[in-house]
Amino acid sequence: MTYKLKSQIDLHGNVVAVAVIRTTDGACIPFDPDNTDYQAFLKYQAEGGKVYGADEEVPDGQANQ
């Protein structure tokens, strides 16, 4: 599984993360503690999984894992 943060610019010009993209299927996962996909992301991250930043490119071959 590979994840990438999705960001946008807020009203003050700051870049803020607004969701997580699961690169295997392009699912947009909101930061919602009740969302089971978000819980899976948090577990992945806690176990040391790589999370790509919004401005990082996911290397070829990683997006489908």
In words, what does this structure look like?
There is one protein chain. With 65 residues, the protein is an alpha+beta fold. It has one domain (3-51). It has 1 helix and 4 strands, in the order βββαβ. Strands 3-2-1-4 form a 4-stranded mixed sheet, with helices on one face.
Brief synopsis:
Helix content is 17%, strand content 32%. The chain has one helix at residues 36-46; strands at 3-9, 15-22, 27-30, 51-52. Strand 1 and strand 2 form a beta hairpin.
Q: Identify the strand order in the major beta sheet.
A: 3-2-1-4
Span between N and C termini?
5 Å
**Estimated share of beta-strand residues:** 25-35%
Q: DSSP helix count?
A: 1
- Count the beta strands: 4
Secondary structure class reads alpha+beta
Counting structural domains, the number is 1
Set out the fold topology.
Elements: E1 3-9, E2 15-22, E3 27-30, H1 36-46, E4 51-52
Parallel strand pairs: 1-4
Antiparallel strand pairs: 1-2, 2-3
Task: List key phrases describing it.
65 residues, alpha+beta, 1 helix, globular
